Structures are given as structure tokens and as C-alpha cells.
């Protein structure tokens, strides 16, 4: 698969003499995304409707804010990832200390996003939204980049990395279950968002997030020691050249951009779909439960299926299932809210395959970067992947707000127009179906690391490290 671009830059990666990889690491890594996603899901599901219905900001303006903030965060991710890669590891590891240091300001800023101050005008709330949301997004990078990068230094064994990916998804789904099932019952009153309840929910989830971050810090162990890369032009040039030649990374970036666009778009539109089209926030709560249950059903299947078929192969199957389900929902306009959830469950089951193993894809492309360049740059490569996800969030934020405005949504109206309701239904069904189809095509025809090629890569890296 090619020789390193600079042999003298090869990093000596070796396991430290710590306790062996085990259940403690898995639970600790689970807790990291559990803490991350308390606010990630709260923000992706409720912040747009909070801004439109409580702050009185137009949906188009909210979309512009989301797009600008996520693009800013995308560059913050890369900057932060590169910064971490040039820092020496402490006695607690290279990545864990940043989770400990930055989680507190992150959570405090997250709570501040949902603060309402009586007597303030529209201009104040618009400025408040812009400042708090952009600061929160920047701080999120300082925690999420080291957390995501940490998987590749907890273990170097492919099957254990797949296990970490599964447990990370479990943490995400636990947060999703709590937010999607519990939050509508807390924050909605008579199918309308309540400002005081929203702030109370943010405080509760903020405390839970801090507890989860601390558990991740205490229970996870970094075993793969890689010294900090020097800040020199030769390393940087090798890094850039390796990134541009890393076809698995490039096509994973495209997939990540499309996936996050879809996930964020669905999350934003579903609030309006269930509260206005179906007039049932209870069905929205059930949707959240089904989404999490589907993921938990898939999780025990991942390890044996990946071992037999490969990550790319089972992910492609799941995406095909999701696309079919959402195309079917587009044509089933007379379904009740619960009927919609029943059909959507098939699609949620399908997407759970890709969502569960995607983090193992990331460790594969990090390894491929090492194969090409001889440089072990976990933070840099992960931050590039995160950059793509943030761009996807930016696109979804901009498109979501503009799309809701384009179909004629009127904030605060007792009843939306029939054309608006039909438009919301189309946004929540046809658009996801098309995007899932595009991701499927990229994965099947363009992403090169199938099961066989991944095994070859792992064998070559193992041979190099043992020299």
C-alpha cells in the first residue's frame, strides 16, 4: 500500500505496561459520549424551536446562525486537533486531561444558551443567541476532539476498537433515549415549548454531563504512547500530502458531511413535524425511544457481523434499509404519528449499523494515514473528520432554518397552513431518503477499505511497528 513519505518521521508506537484493555475502558469511553450527547441532542432537537418560539428569532436567521457557527467550529476543530498533536503527553495521557479541563466551561456555556431574562428586547436575545451558541460550539471542540482521538490510543487491536465504537454509540443512544423520550414531557406544555422548563432541563442535563465526563476521565486508560510531533514544516508538509492521498479519509469525510447534514436536519424538522403535522409530542417521545431501542438491538450484532462481513459491508446494508423506509414514508401521508414512528423504526434500525461502526471507520483512516506518512497524528486526522461533521451541521442548520421558513412556518400561530404542513412532511421524509441514498452510493462505490483491504493494512502496520 505504499512506503512512508518520510521514514525518519515514523513514530514509535508501543503499548505501555498498564492494566489490560477491558470492561472498565469500555464503560469509561461510553460515559464520554453519554456526557457529550446530553447537550448535543438537546441542542440539535430543541434549540431551533427555542430560538423561534421563545426568543422570537426568525427561522431563516436561526439557520444563518447555525451555519456560521458550525463553519467556525469546523475550523476550530482542525486548529485544536493540530494543537493537541504538538503537545507532550502528561502522566495522565495525551487526550484525557483536556476532557477534564474543558468540560466545566463547556457545560456552563451550554446552560447559558437557554437563559431567558425578563424585560429584554429582540435585539438582546438575538445577540445573546449568537454569542452563547458560538462560544458553546467552540468549547465543544476542546472536549470532543480529544475524546474522539482517544480511541486510537486506548488500544491498537481492530476488534477492540470496534468494541469501543459500539460502546461509544451505546453512550450516545443512552443520552438520545433520555433526551428524546424524557425532554418532550419536561419542556413541552400543551404542545408548546415552555421557557422555564427548558432552562430547568438544561441545568439537569448539565449536571449529568459533568458526572459523565469525570467518569470518562477516571475510567479510560491511554495505552498507546506516541510522542508529540515537532512543529516543523517537513512534518506539516508530510501531513498535508498524506491527508490528500488518504482516499479512505476523503470519502469518509464526504459520508460524514452527508450523514450529519441528514441527522441534524431530521432532528430540527422532527420537532415541527410532530408538534404541527401530527399534533402529537407524545409520538415524538416514542420516536426517541424507538431510535435508541433500534441502536441497542443492533449493538450486540455488530461484532459478529463485522467479523464475518466487514464494516463497509454491513453499513451499506443498513443505509439501503434506511433509504427504503424514508421513501416509503414520503408516500404514506395519511399515517398517524404512531404509524409514522412504526415505519420509521425500520429506517432507524438500518442507520444504527452505520452509526455504531462509524467511529471504527475513523480509527481505520487514522491507521491509513500512518501507513502513508509514518506519522501518528490521531488528533489531526480525527479533527479533519470532525471538521466534515461540523460542515454537515452547518449545512443542515442553514438549510433547516431556510427550509422551515420556505414552507411558510409562522412561529406562534395557532394553526399552520395546509401547504406548510405538507411541506414539513416532505422535509421530514423525502429529503432524508435522498441523502441516505447518496451516502450509500459513496460507501459502496468509492470508499476503498473493505474487509480484505482493512486486514491487509492492519497486518502491514503491525509488521512495521514490530521492526
Automatic annotation (TrEMBL):
The keyword Nucleus does not apply. It comes from the Bacteria. InterPro entries: MFS_2, MFS_dom, MFS_trans_sf, Na/Gal_symport. One of its GO terms (cellular component) is plasma membrane. It is a multi-pass membrane protein. PROSITE patterns: MFS (PS50850). Its main location: membrane. CDD domains: MFS_MelB_like. One of its GO terms (molecular function) is symporter activity. Keywords: Membrane, Transmembrane, Transmembrane helix, Transport. It is found in: Cell membrane. Residues 248-467 form the Major facilitator superfamily (MFS) profile domain. The chain crosses the membrane at residues 38-66, 98-117, 123-145, 166-186, 198-216, 249-274, 280-302, 314-332, 338-362, 394-412, 424-447. GO terms for biological process: carbohydrate transport; sodium ion transport. NCBIfam families: gph. This is MFS transporter. It comes from Pradoshia eiseniae.
Amino acid at each position: 500500500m505504499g512506503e512512508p513519505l518520510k521514514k525518519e518521521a515514523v513514530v514509535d508506537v508501543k503499548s505501555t505496561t498498564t492494566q489490560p484493555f477491558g470492561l472498565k475502558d469500555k464503560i469509561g469511553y461510553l460515559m464520554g459520549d453519554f456526557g457529550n450527547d446530553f447537550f448535543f441532542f438537546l441542542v440539535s432537537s430543541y434549540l431551533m424551536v427555542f430560538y423561534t418560539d421563545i426568543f422570537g428569532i426568525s427561522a431563516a436567521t436561526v439557520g444563518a446562525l447555525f451555519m456560521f457557527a458550525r463553519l467556525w467550529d469546523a475550523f476550530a476543530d482542525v486548529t485544536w486537533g493540530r494543537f493537541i498533536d504538538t503537545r507532550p503527553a502528561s502522566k495522565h495521557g495525551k487526550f484525557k486531561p483536556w476532557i477534564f479541563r474543558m468540560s466545566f466551561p463547556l457545560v456552563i456555556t451550554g446552560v447559558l444558551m437557554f437563559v431567558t431574562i425578563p424585560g429584554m428586547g429582540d435585539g438582546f436575545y438575538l445577540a445573546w443567541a449568537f454569542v452563547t451558541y458560538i462560544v458553546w460550539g467552540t468549547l465543544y471542540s476542546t472536549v470532543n476532539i480529544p475524546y474522539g482521538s482517544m480511541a486510537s490510543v486506548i488500544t491498537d487491536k481492530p476488534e477492540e476498537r470496534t468494541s469501543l465504537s459500539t460502546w461509544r454509540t451505546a453512550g450516545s443512544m443512552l443520552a438520545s433515549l433520555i433526551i428524546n423520550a424524557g425532554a418532550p414531557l419536561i419542556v413541552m406544555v400543551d404542545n408548546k415549548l415552555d421557557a422555564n422548563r427548558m432552562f430547568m432541563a438544561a441545568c439537569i442535563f448539565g449536571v449529568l454531563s459533568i458526572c459523565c465526563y469525570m467518569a470518562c476521565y477516571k475510567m479510560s486508560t491511554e495505552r498507546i504512547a506516541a510522542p508529540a510531533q515537532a512543529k516543523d514544516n517537513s512534518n506539516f508538509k508530510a501531513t498535508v500530502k498524506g491527508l490528500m492521498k488518504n482516499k479512505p479519509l476523503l470519502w469518509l469525510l464526504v459520508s460524514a458531511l452527508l450523514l450529519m447534514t441528514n441527522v441534524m436536519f431530521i432532528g430540527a424538522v422532527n420537532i415541527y413535524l410532530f408538534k404541527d403535522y401530527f399534533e402529537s409530542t407524545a409520538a415524538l417521545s416514542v420516536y426517541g425511544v424507538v431510535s435508541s431501542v433500534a441502536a441497542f438491538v443492533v449493538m450486540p450484532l455488530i461484532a459478529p457481523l463485522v467479523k464475518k462481513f466487514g464494516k463497509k459491508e454491513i453499513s451499506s446494508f443498513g443505509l439501503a434499509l434506511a433509504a427504503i423506509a424514508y421513501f416509503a414514508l414520503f408516500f404514506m401521508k395519511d399515517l398517524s404519528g404512531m404509524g409514522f414512528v412504526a415505519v420509521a423504526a425500520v429506517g432507524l434500525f438500518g442507520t444504527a449499523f452505520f452509526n455504531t461502526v462509524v467511529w471504527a471507520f475513523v480509527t481505520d483512516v487514522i491507521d491509513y494515514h500512518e501507513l502513508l506518512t509514518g506519522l501518528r497524528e490521531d488528533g489531526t486526522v480525527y479533527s479533519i473528520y470532525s471538521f466534515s461533521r461540523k460542515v454537515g451541521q452547518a449545512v443542515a442548520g442553514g438549510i433547516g432554518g431556510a427550509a422551515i421558513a420556505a414552507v411558510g412556518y409562522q412561529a406562534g400561530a395557532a394553526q399552520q397552513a395546509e401547504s406548510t404542513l405538507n411541506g414539513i412532511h416532505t422535509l421530514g421524509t423525502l429529503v432524508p431518503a435522498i441523502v441516505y441514498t447518496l451516502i450509500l452510493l459513496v460507501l459502496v462505490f468509492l470508499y476503498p477499505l473493505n474487509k480484505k483491504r482493512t486486514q491487509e493494512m492492519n497486518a502491514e502496520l503491525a509488521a512495521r511497528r514490530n521492526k
